Amino acid sequence: MAAAKIEKLQPAVAALDQISENEKSGFVSLVSRYLSGEADQIEWSKIQTPTDKVVVPYDSLAPPLEDLEATKKLLNKLAVLKLNGGLGTTMGCTGPKSVIEVRNGFTFLDLIVIQIESLNKKYGCNVPLLLMNSFNTHDDTLKIVEKYANSNIEIHTFNQSQYPRLVVEDFLPLPSKGQTGKDGWYPPGHGDVFPALKNSGKLDALLSQGKEYVFVANSDNLGAIVDIKILNHLVNNQNEYCMEVTPKTLADVKGGTLISYEGRVQLLEIAQVPDAHVNEFKSIEKFKIFNTNNLWVNLKAIKRLVEADALKMEIIPNPKEVDGVKVLQLETAAGAAIRFFNNAIGINVPRSRFLPVKATSDLLLVQSDLYKLVDGFVVRNTARKIPANPSIELGPEFKKVADSLSRFKSVPSIVDLDSLKVSGDVWFGAGITLKGNVAIAAKSGVKLQIPDGAVLENKVINGPEDLRA
Q1: What's domain 2-353's architecture?
Q2: What is the pTM of this model?
Q3: What is the average pLDDT across 389-397?
């Protein structure tokens, strides 16, 4: 059955003239693996908790080098790569997510550029920035990058693969059935970063410049900054791959975790967990860490493994619907590649290195007085004594960035906030302070305005009368 499907698929893919031969063969190989059902089943009893040798505590890393020249030499071995394929549609924005304004008028991309600029200036080094776009973000990103033309950074852009969506009914590509627009295609997840680096020619270009490591991170993770201690550790210990992990909180129970399995370190995702063990997986007692998707990878090792076609990461099937047609996207994740690299490790980093902005509630955190901006780095306010960030839940009225921003005359002070829940038609005045646990729920059809200068501490607000209490 699988062989017959592949036999029909191959000529259909060969006829697609919008994509390269590399993309065609990569896609057919992915579909063949999926149809063969080669997924490795995890034997739960064989899972072991990684030791400190496998998941290294950040505090045990050697302090950064004092010597400026040695640091420059070390940083000259590095390139930074940001995964820039995502659109800001879930937050109501058009175009790449990385151009959403985060703070003081700066976008994610502005902050990334400022950070690397200050690094290159401070140490006199040449750390280049690579942006892996998708066909969705490519054109917009090229226009945006022009504004950094006078920067002291080399900025390179390249595209991840473009694969055709598969029609579930007969396993043929959607574009071969007349859906030739963008809806016929998809980017196959960030696991594609390794072949895409090679196919774009960027991998060989970096190696020819003497680069040894690439630091890969999501463009929306404001905590993913270059860390000299981590780079120094990897170079000294010849680790081919390092995943930054951080302690789980109850908000991260679905995040992938690192395990030791049959003598190797590997990523365990919730989708691989047998149903009987899902609650155990979600427990923060047994699985204490999760993947931040900040990855440090040796460039020569990427070249070796991609050329040997050895990176067979777990396939993530992602069902969708396009104009009423059920389709399938097959994707892979970069973190799952850890088990193919030699001497791979995790480093258990502070939570400050994981500050993603996935929703307007995250944006509110980083725009507030909980953080300040220093040289492009978002730095936590030391006045906050509790290590965890407040938990913030904003209702659907706040889902889009523009709507959320319009509902706050100014961002409230939240240094002493534990939790905030907002629902309904709520509007915030200027200079508001929120402390402890605050819940604001406007009744249906009621516009609830929190006045300028209000201080709300451990309050439940359901109407204007509660503000006077």
Answers
A1: Alpha-Beta Complex (3.90)
A2: 0.94
A3: 94
